[in-house]
Amino acid sequence: MKGNQSRSRTMLKKHQEPSPLGQGLAEVFDRRSWRVQWGLVGLVRDWSSIVGETVAVRSMPAFFRRDVLWIYVVSPIWMQQLQLQKQDLLDRIRRYLDRDEVADLRWLLFPPELLPEDENRESGTMPERSVAPEEEESFRAMVSGIVDPESQEALFRLWLAFRKKGSVERDEG
Asked: What segment(s) does the record annotate as region Disordered (predicted)?
């Protein structure tokens, strides 16, 4: 009986020892591969400064599948053009992400619901999609456990901005 009590105390102490929040978040990010997805958020946000305005108005980072970044492009002609610039674009993206985890770039056409009416995309911005109030409420409920209201609101704004730009496929592997 005494051995069981000792083991219970040891287990209890392990769970009660505080650890820095940053350390815990880093572990969760690594375990869930969120670091790569967080990099995608930055790529979308800073796309025109990374690849230049001419390319940015005709393309957008879509998703990561393992170590490959898939990029939406407005037309097959622009797929060919970006293929010719692939190494330069890959170098720029790696510099921006400050890591070599992106092994390759692949292209796919914008889904019809994301393709702007003006195929030339002169405005340089992606069309916004509406977000249903139920989705917003659901997300707010999901993040309600975050104690800091500023962090909660910042996460909601990030989710909302990303949601309005279109869905992103997740890498399950």
From this structure: 1-23, 118-137
Beta bridge partners of 69: 64, 105
Q: How far apart are CA 153 and CA 136, in angstroms?
A: 12
Q: Output the pLDDT for position 25.
A: 59
Structural domains for the chain: 22-165 (3.30.300.180)
Dist CA 89 CA 69 (whole Å): 11
**pTM exceeds 0.90 for this model:** no
Interval 74-88: pLDDT, tens:
999 999 999 999 999
What DSSP designation does 150 have? H
Rg over alpha carbons for the chain, rounded to the nearest Å, is 21
Place of tokens 């170098």: 91
CA angle 99, 105, 107 (to 5 degrees): 150
Structure tokens at 5: 């009590």
Closest CA to 38 of 128, 141, 159: 159
Report the alpha-carbon distance of residue 147 to residue 14 in Å, rounded. 23
Distance CA 69, CA 103 (A): 8
Rounded CA-CA distance 145/23 in Å is: 19
